[in-house]
């Protein structure tokens, strides 16, 4: 039986789709760990149409996960270090109603496969220290590589940088 799921690389024409997914996912994902003001501020910095277009032009590759014709999640990745084989998973989000079905793992596997083919030896990602997704990443083979506090406007993201060595 053919899978009804597909993953496609996004173009600027897909920005409205990514924006709609982010609108549905962002606030519920962070409401228990960030203030409403910080959520709104960060969404405005990262997920406006202009911000998404700029990220694509700055070499973030976006992919979208579809269930049939319905977009249900997305991820973005980029080269982290130009002098080394490290890539960064910048974003990975799945509709909350679709979590727990193995689809996040499918999306993560697709990123790992793509960056591996591009020559990556490691894939890094940032996760908020209080985000329950940390356990998901650990189950997928990631470990805490270091901790960092990142200023975003007047706010701080208190993150773990997690890393996985790729085959």
Overview of this structure, please?
The chain has five helices and seven strands, in the order E-H-H-H-E-E-E-H-E-H-E-E. It has 167 residues and is α+β, with helices and mostly antiparallel strands. It has a seven-stranded mixed beta sheet, sandwiched between helices. Strand 4 (86-94), helix 4 (103-117) and strand 5 form a beta-alpha-beta unit. Helix 1 (15-30) runs antiparallel to helix 2. The longest helix has 16 residues, at 15-30. It is globular and about 40 Å long. The mean pLDDT is 94.
Keywords:
alpha+beta, 167 residues, seven-stranded mixed β-sheet, 7 strands, 5 helices
Number of strands: 7
The run of helices and strands is EHHHEEEHEHEE
How much β-strand is present in the residues? 35-45%
Main sheet: strand order: 1-2-3-4-5-7-6
DSSP summary: helix tally: 5
Please describe the topology of this protein.
Blueprint: E1 5-9, H1 15-30, H2 36-46, H3 49-57, E2 61-67, E3 70-81, E4 86-94, H4 103-117, E5 122-128, H5 133-139, E6 143-152, E7 155-165
